[in-house]
Write a structure and sequence with these properties.
CATH class of the largest domain: Alpha Beta
Helix content: 25-40%
Shape: elongated
Largest sheet: 9 strands, mixed
CATH architecture of the largest domain: Alpha-Beta Barrel
Structural class: alpha/beta
Length: 418
């Protein structure tokens, strides 16, 4: 039983709900009950069970589909906050899940607010009830700045920040805010070695912050830093690198305050370094991927307590025993394509199988010599190499409880930019 795109209910197999549909546990209760009843009629052979991951009735979900395991998700949120003594020192990135439902879960756990990469993500965070949110992406197009100003005005009871790394960013924000007789809060984005966005930590940052301070229509919001170039596997090296940035930021903050400028907050790091920032007095850490975790995280940071919470349910559609290959419906429309092919996905319980060939709708896996190949029709769970851009492949995620039942559907509210 399933909700069709039109909103009607059918018993002949599910299709993905459209992005425009608002699905919640109450509205979906009859459907979930149908899924549970359907599960009881299925044979054990059709179940997926790789402890602690269990899907009782994969036939009820049209593949390929993104699935989120509720128990693992909740544990990741708990660890996310627990590692830094609570969530009040966290500004979590919403880019990984892009889901208002999960943002609400994070807020309920005590997270202070969110960092966002798009205006759609910013709206999601504020709609979820976040008391503060940062658009940590530079805006220079007037259309985007106008929209940012609209969002800030709509949520004038919240703290909403733009980020700048170039004088032109400041100019556009100041001009539009002045034309609207509005004040906009602005943070300076800093480049600490990634050379992607941001101002240098020296005179460049001071000059940029001074420009914000001097603009009557702008408010100094603080500092933002992302050290995404430092993926150290050794925890001590990872923490030491982040601590150097913390120390540099403290120095910059002191210099700005000596000149009479307020630096109300500093937000730094990513999933690999957020804890170091969050533990520093007056800082907020900014994790993202840890909410779902993925192969990249496991490979680079095996010391972390997180577990895979989101996967792609796929199915074997053909097999070639003479070639030791199986073909699934895990095409590159179904999983992020930025890791190299061999690291793009692993099949849970068959981690030695490697992705050999991928097209739009096909994912061919090479099986180890001597291992038993799956049969046509067998279901597989694919662990993404990079889970964040995998999310945008799907309009939403099916939520699976510890009993293997589909209990909810989380629309990817900010899947699109507009």
């Amino acid at each position: 039983m399933v909700v069709r795109r039109s909103g009607t209910i059918s018993s002949d197999g599910p299709s993905h709900p459209s992005q425009s549909q608002t699905l919640n546990a109450t509205a979906m209760t009859p459907i979930f009950n149908g899924l549970r009843q359907s599960r009881r009629r299925r044979s054990a052979a059709q179940m997926i069970e790789h402890d602690p991951y269990f899907i009782a009735d994969p036939d009820a979900i049209e593949t390929p589909a993104m699935v989120v395991f509720e128990q693992q998700l909740d544990a990741n949120i708990a660890d996310l906050c627990g590692l830094v003594g609570g969530g009040a020192n966290l500004m979590a990135h919403v880019k990984t899940h892009k889901s208002e439902a999960i943002a609400r879960k994070q807020l309920a756990a005590g997270i202070a607010g969110f960092k966002c990469a798009t205006l759609q993500e910013l709206e999601l965070a504020l709609d979820a009830g976040a008391p503060e949110a940062i658009l940590a992406y530079p805006m220079v197009q007037r259309r985007k700045v106008e929209r940012f100003a609209d969002i800030s005005a709509t949520y004038d009871d919240r703290k909403v920040y733009a980020a700048v790394g170039d004088p032109r960013h400041v100019d556009v924000l100041a001009q539009i805010a002045q034309n609207r007789s509005q004040k906009l809060a602005v943070m300076v984005d800093l480049d600490v070695g990634m050379h992607r966005t941001g101002a240098g930590l020296d005179e460049e940052a001071t000059a940029l912050y001074s420009a914000i301070h001097a603009a009557p229509s702008l408010i100094c919001g603080g500092l933002h830093v992302y050290d995404g170039h430092e993926h150290f596997r050794d925890p001590s090296a990872r923490n030491a690198a982040a601590q150097r940035h913390v120390d540099d930021l403290k120095t910059l903050k002191g210099r700005l305050e000596e000149q009479g400028m307020s630096v109300p907050r500093i937000v730094g790091g990513g999933s690999f370094s957020y804890a170091t920032y969050a533990r520093a007095e007056g800082f907020h850490g900014s994790p993202g991927t840890v909410i779902y975790w993925d192969l990249n995280g496991t490979g680079r940071m095996s010391d972390q307590p997180y577990r895979w919470a989101a996967m792609v349910l796929c199915q074997v559609v053909d097999r070639h025993p003479d070639q030791l290959t199986v073909t699934t419906d895990l095409g590159y429309k179904a999983i992020a394509g930025d890791p190299p092919l061999a690291n793009r996905a692993r099949l849970l319980g068959h981690e030695q199988a490697t992705l050999l060939l991928q097209n739009e709708e096909h994912g061919v896996f090479s099986w180890p010599d001597g291992a038993s190949l799956p049969q046509v029709g067998d279901y597989q769970l694919a662990i993404p190499g990079h889970v964040c851009p995998t999310t945008i492949r799907f309009p939403g995620s099916y939520v699976i409880d510890s009993q293997g039942a589909v209990v909810d559907y989380y629309p990817h509210t900010a899947r699109d930019r507009q």
